[in-house]
Design a protein that fits this description.
29 helices, single chain, mainly alpha, disordered C terminus
């Protein structure tokens, strides 16, 4: 029979359960409940009573032998071996108990996840005889307490447990349920992990071959450029496309043509700050899903003024839509001027597809293969399990239709933006031809269409009675609302159309500068800043705990008009920078420092969320939520994102731009604008470049 000392060590988690039972059940006698619980544990888990436990599950003495162990009885047999090992003072057996999560401190402060020791559990491997061994299996269990009244009946705790690998989730749940009626502890196989288990599939080998081929091309091209340059010879442009030497030089080249009327250097800063804001938002979003020991503080944070900068950070996507419309209009109208109003539309579309797809396709391939091998941990599957959606919807991502064809189950979810922007680009010739042919009347027609789409978004919110904001946080939103008002192209068209119309203004202005009085400048800046700040902070009142919920009517006005207000505020900033009245703002946004980040912004958008999810999913200990800790988390994620994006740019994006330029530029009217336009369309590569 086990000693009391060993029984206590074997049942840490059950004592933890007893603690909660005492805490949650008002009828439990406080003075002697712990003693009674230990007596119950000792009674159920001594060797004298263990055969009764076996027989309760239909096991005979004969089937207890490991030699006759079956899949159905293996779990109980190995549990008995663990108890035997504890009696013999064997370290491997104590590791099963030691790896269990213990009583978490601060449950009422939001610390409802006790992950135990993931690595210790998976490291367990004990050889019992030459044919049999026991290994550890880690599972993150869900514990719910059945109580009579009050908030305590809602207590749910996730606890890491360590069981023999032979125990299935179903069998362990059955064993636990048979002995504890006041606690519901359950595990599922998707929340369990064993050592190894990941095998290379056919697609993994294909991906490995693709990435190795890209690496080989990069090495070959780089060596070729080095040799030809050393001997003073010229190399074929295609052979130079993958060269690290040329592409690195291009990446870090700082354009000095800032005085040209055809160049808008402030776009570099706007683009770079927007991608930084998006990454910052996603760092906070993932932190809300992390096992925070002070999760209660999240509610207070959601009600702070500072949180509105993050809760409304999704408006930064409108910046990219605005820039996309502006650039496609500016570049296309200048090209149409040379070709007397003609556009090679099929070549435009082909150029666009080849411009975006290689980086996206390789990222999706990585996501479907090596991504799952990048880490492990108690919450790995919960954070990173989205890659499984790619088995069914990868095609929608590569065809840029996932925001409609796969809404709610998108592969590479944040690529919805690329789908919407590509759809805008494909329909852009319609608006370009209308404006080119009818000028002011064409602009009026486009403006009316934009107002109709604003009204469409307004009616979607109102008819469906959608809640666009609530006071418990808006970093993650209702899925149905996302489908109707966030992912859909028709709900995001207004910033893009404003960009189209403003691009036409810049083209038609021909670089002329307008004299603006100090009064007009002050009025313009006040109006612009008021629009931008109102979009970010006007819902602050609804974030407070005692605030009434926002009505569908109020939400419809906000959601439909905020896209317009944000874009109009950006119009003023770009206008004064182009007009020479930008002052310190223009100097800051036009710093050469922003140009490399601007060129990397497309790769950064593609890869940043993958990196954030990997870093979050690998957590094996609890985290602490605070603004300072989140800033530290952001800089680590941002630094790794920059590194991976630089590699992706040099190995994939820049080479494909060279190949695209070689094959398409000779016949393309939209990808061969005037020399002055190349500073906008070629050197400023980003996630909404035309």
């Amino acid at each position: 029979m086990l000693s009391t000392k060993y029984i206590k060590n074997c049942t840490h988690f059950l004592i933890f359960v007893g603690f909660f039972y005492q805490f949650c059940n008002a009828d439990a006698p406080v003075s002697n409940f712990g003693y009674e619980l230990i007596k119950k544990i000792q009674k159920n888990f001594t060797f004298d009573s263990y055969p009764n436990l076996n027989s309760s599950f239909g096991l005979s003495t004969h089937t207890q032998s490991r030699a006759y162990k079956t899949a159905d009885t293996a779990c109980l047999t190995d549990l008995r071996e663990v108890l035997n090992g504890i009696e013999r003072d064997e370290v491997w057996a104590f590791k099963f108990i030691d790896a269990w999560g213990k009583v978490p401190a601060g449950i009422l402060y939001g610390n409802t996840v006790e992950m135990g020791n993931f690595g210790e559990c998976l490291s367990i491997s004990a050889t019992l005889d030459k044919d049999e061994s026991i290994t550890g299996k880690y599972c993150l269990s869900n514990v719910r307490f059945i109580t009579k009244e009050g908030f305590r009946n809602k207590t749910n705790v996730n606890v890491g447990i360590c069981i023999p690998q032979t125990c299935t989730a179903e069998k362990f749940n059955e064993v636990f349920k048979a002995h504890f009626s006041d606690i519901q502890l359950s595990i599922s196989e998707k929340d369990c992990k064993v050592q190894g288990g990941d095998v290379f599939t056919t697609l993994d080998w294909v991906a490995l071959g693709v990435f190795c081929s890209v690496g080989f091309l990069v090495c070959l091209s780089t060596v070729n450029e080095y040799i030809t340059h050393k001997f003073g010879k010229k190399s074929h442009p295609l052979l130079l496309s993958f060269s690290l030497i040329s592409n690195t030089r291009q990446l870090f080249h700082i354009s000095s043509h800032t005085n040209s009327p055809s160049v808008i250097p402030c776009l570099h800063g706007i683009r770079s700050l927007s991608i930084v804001w998006i990454i910052y938002l996603h760092c906070y979003l993932m932190m809300t899903y992390s096992p925070n020991i002070n999760a209660v503080e999240l509610r207070n944070w959601f009600q702070s003024v500072y949180s509105m900068v993050l809760q409304r950070a999704s408006i930064s996507v409108d910046t990219f839509f605005f820039l996309s419309g502006l650039l496609v209009a500016l570049v296309s109208f200048r090209s149409m001027e040379k070709t007397k109003g003609k556009l090679n539309v099929p070549l435009m579309w082909l150029h666009r597809y080849l411009r975006l797809t290689p980086v996206l396709a390789l990222a999706v391939l990585f996501f479907m293969t090596f991504y799952r091998l990048m880490g492990e941990g108690p919450i790995w599957q919960n954070i990173t399990g989205a890659y499984k959606l790619c088995d069914e919807t990868w095609w929608a991502t590569l065809l840029y239709v996932q925001n409609y064809a796969a809404a709610g189950k998108m592969c590479f979810g944040h690529a919805w933006y690329l789908a919407a922007d590509t759809q805008f680009y494909f329909i852009s010739p319609i608006f370009l031809f209308i404006i080119w042919k009818w000028h002011k009347r064409g602009l009026a027609a486009v403006a009316i269409f934009g107002l109709l789409m604003v009204g469409c978004l307004f009616s979607i919110v109102l008819v469906n009675k959608l809640i666009v904001f609530d006071n418990i946080g808006n970093l993650g939103t209702d899925q149905e609302m996302l489908k109707k008002t966030y992912y859909s192209t028709h709900s995001r068209v207004s910033p893009w159309l404003i960009g189209i119309m403003f691009g036409y203004y810049l083209y038609n202005n021909k670089g002329r500068r307008h004299e603006l009085s100090r009064t007009w400048l002050m009025f313009g800046w006040l109006t612009s800043l008021s629009l931008l700040l109102t979009v970010i902070f006007c819902l602050y009142g609804y974030a407070q705990a005692d605030a009434p919920p926002i009505s569908p009517l109020e939400g419809a006005f906000y959601l439909s008009l905020s896209h317009v207000a944000w874009s109009l505020g950006l119009c003023w900033i770009v206008f004064v920078c182009v007009n020479g009245n930008g002052g310190i703002v223009n100097k800051f946004l036009s710093l050469g420092f922003w140009q490399p980040i601007s060129k990397l912004s497309y790769c950064m958008y593609i890869w940043h969320l993958v990196i954030i999810m990997v870093n979050t999913g690998r957590l094996k200990t609890n985290t602490y939520f605070s603004n300072y800790d989140l800033i530290l988390n952001f800089w680590s994620n941002f630094g790794i994102t920059m590194m991976i994006s630089t590699i992706a740019y040099l190995a994939i994006e820049a080479p494909m731009l060279g190949v695209d330029k070689y094959f398409l530029s000779s016949s393309s009217t939209t990808s061969r604008p005037q020399q002055s336009t190349k500073q906008i369309a070629a050197s400023q590569q980003h996630i909404c470049e035309s």
